[in-house]
Structure prediction request, 227 residues.
Amino acid sequence: DPKIIQKPKYLVAVTGSEKILICEQYLGHNAMYWYRQSAKKPLEFMFSYSYQKLMDNQTASSRFQPQSSKKNHLDLQITALKPDDSATYFCASSQETDSNERLFFGHGTKLSVL
Amino acid sequence: GEQVEQRPPHLSVREGDSAVIICTYTDPNSYYFFWYKQEPGAGLQLLMKVFSSTEINEGQGFTVLLNKKDKQLSLNLTAAHPGDSAVYFCAVRVTQVVGQLTFGRGTRLQVYA
Prediction:
């Protein structure tokens, strides 16, 4: 059973619209992250949350807003979508007491903006 | 900021041969270094975390070498088998934030019988 669930797996949106990417983890971790992988770039860090609080926001614009309604949820709201937002978005989690800093990744949501 | 170059992007080896993937990074203040493996249809999985320079770290069927002098990280899959076929990513942590990693572009490894 997947321990990190991302929904949907595929998503098609029109330019200017708004979408929410869902992420739930059932590993009991206290830290969650969003990463993005586009065709032109390697996997890029976007956000880090610890105990539902934003720890770091690396370069993501204000159109990208993480939302943590529960400890094991970290959704990603994207507004005013642009074709350049097309990418696969990966959610990840970790346990801060893990000395190996192991990140557990979901399978990703592939977003295509037309 | 930190940049990580990973090569080769594609690698095809015969079963039993070794496969070497190399990453070079730019920031000399990088703290920790990681190798991740992504099998088809699955999320990334951690293979190893290293932080000691010029130390060979051995895992199950692979070794990792970190050379901080040359800012190079390598993964050597010894005696590769078809189950090793996957995409391998190196990653570097530069900041104090756990989980904030800079990834290489990945190497798609194909091991054929």
User: Anything to note?
Assistant: The first strand of chain B starts at residue 4 and ends at 7. The two ends of chain B are 41 Å apart (CA to CA). The CA atoms of residues 2 and 27 of chain B lie 5 Å apart. DSSP finds no helices and eleven strands in chain B.
